[in-house]
Amino acid sequence: MNRIRCDRTPAWGQLQAAYEATGHAFDVNRAFATDPARFAAFSQSAPHVFADLSKNRIDATTEALLLELAQQTGLVAHRDAMFAGEAVNSTERRPVMHWLLRTPPLDPAMPTQSVHRHMAETLHEVHLTLDAMLAYAERMRADEHITDIVNIGIGGSDLGPQMAVQALDAFVHPGKRFHFVSNVDGHELNAVLRKVKPASTLFLVASKTFTTIETMTNAQSAKAWFEANGGTDVARHFAALTTNVKAAQVFGIDTTFGFWDWVGGRYSIWSAIGLPLAMAIGARRFREFLAGGHAMDQHFRNAPMAQNLPVRLGLLDVWYRNFHGFTSRSVAPYHCALKRYPAYLQQLEMESNGKRVDADGAALPYGTAPVIWGEPGTNGQHAYFQMLHQGTDVVPMEFVAVKTPRHDLPGHHRLLLANVLAQAQALMQGQSDVGGHKHFTGNRPSTFLLLDELSPASLGALIALQEHRVFVSGSVWGINSFDQWGVELGKVLARQVETLLGNGDNTGLDGSTAGLLARLRA
Ligand code: F6P
Question: What is the number of alpha carbons within 13 Å of residue 168 lying toward its C-beta?
Answer without folding.
Answer: 27
